[in-house]
Design brief:
Shape: globular
Number of strands: 3
Largest sheet: 3 strands, parallel
Strand order of the largest sheet: 2-1-3
Strand content: 5-15%
Radius of gyration: 15 Å
Distance between the termini: 41 Å
Oligomer: single chain
Low-confidence stretches: none
Helix content: 25-40%
Number of helices: 4
C-alpha cells in the first residue's frame, strides 16, 4: 500500500479557508445538543481537522447529521464512552480537533 504523505494529512491543512462560517443566530429556543450539532456541522464543513465522535446517540444529539454530510469526519464510538475519550485524545494528539457527544447518565 502507498505510504501516506504528511503533507496531505488534514492536520497540516490551513485552519479555516476563507475565515469562519457565518452562522445565523436563531431567534427560537433550541436544545444545547441541537445547537452543538448544528455548529459542529457548519464548522466541520470549513475545517477538515474537525472530527465528530458519537456515542450511538446521534439521533438524539443531532450528530448523525454530521455523519450523513461528512462521513470522513465522523466516528461512531457506540456505547463505549471511555473509548470516545481515548479516541478524542488520539485525534487531538494527531492535530485533529475532536468534538463528541453522548449522554452522561448511564
Amino acid at each position: 500500500p502507498p505510504t501516506p504523505s504528511p503533507a496531505n494529512h488534514p492536520a497540516h491543512a490551513p485552519a479555516v479557508k476563507g475565515g469562519w462560517p457565518n452562522v445565523e443566530i436563531y431567534d427560537s429556543p433550541m436544545a444545547p445538543r441541537t445547537a452543538e450539532a448544528q455548529m459542529g456541522l457548519e464548522i466541520a464543513k470549513h475545517d477538515q481537522r474537525i472530527v465528530a465522535l458519537d456515542g450511538e446517540v446521534g439521533n438524539s444529539t443531532g450528530f448523525q447529521t454530521i455523519g450523513e454530510h461528512l462521513p470522513r469526519q465522523f466516528v461512531e464510538g457506540f456505547i463505549a464512552e471511555s473509548l470516545l475519550v481515548g479516541l478524542s485524545t488520539g485525534f487531538a494528539h494527531q492535530k485533529y480537533i475532536p468534538i463528541h457527544s453522548t449522554f452522561g447518565a448511564f
